[in-house]
Amino acid sequence: xxxxxxxxxxxxxxxxxxxxxxxxxxxxxxxxxxxxxxxxxxxxxxxxxxxxxxxxxxxxxxxxxxxxxxxxxxxxxxxxxxxxxxxxxxxxxxxxxxxxxxxxxxxxxxxxxxxxxxxxxxxxxxxxxxxxxxxxxxxxxxxxxxxxxxxxxxxxxxxxxxxxxxxxxxxxxxxxxxxxxxxxxxxxxxxxxxxxxxxxxxxxxxxxxxxxxxxxxxxxxxxxxxxxxxxxxxxxxxxxxxxxxxxxxxxxxxxxxxxxxxxxxxxxxxxxxxx
Length: 275
Known about the structure:
The chain has helices at 78-91, 101-104, 123-134, 151-158, 162-165, 183-196, 224-252, 257-260; strands spanning 6-9, 14-16, 19-21, 28-31, 34-36, 43-44, 59-64, 95-99, 137-142, 170-175, 205-207. It is an alpha/beta fold. The radius of gyration is 19 Å and the shape is globular.
């Protein structure tokens, strides 16, 4: 049986000037009942500050943080933000896998993936591990709870060690129903991602008053000018993620980073300075 909560999305064809990037990856939704094919849509992009030129397609894991299935608040904001970010990544030609704690229902951390014998790893953790290892970059999407990131998002991250995430970039998207846009949660998430080895890019995305920014489908509420403003704002963050993601992917293909800096595998004392 396949674990619920892992959604694989096909990249949309992304055009810049007269050049088109072909989307080649398979799309499926992993659920308790099996695999469901999803369709893809074509979109275009121009070489302006709101978009980039042709970028080699990356496998990007989007990890969301909300666990809300009913209000309050009204509307539920997380799916709107996630939809917009995923649509934007797909428009730029990337393959997106969404890890959603609302459907994944991963139990609270008792034993991380690396603590199991290989033959005893739970199926759900094994599938999550496969997606995270294959990803070239990560996008975390978090609400703010008590000035901190989503506990559900942290629970997913904490099930895995840095050897899963290292040598790849990450991006942080935060949101709130109020004026601060989850900025304090985003800042608190930075050192966590850094410790995992997926260094966050400098450009953060904060979405204040999120209920009035995106509709149920993840489209910007407002006219075309408003949509372009958000595309430019979010695009700056994604452009940094793409730059580092391409660079890291290219270098991993010629040199194994773990041969330069081996992962700690025995116990935490491996981190200790000589005494």
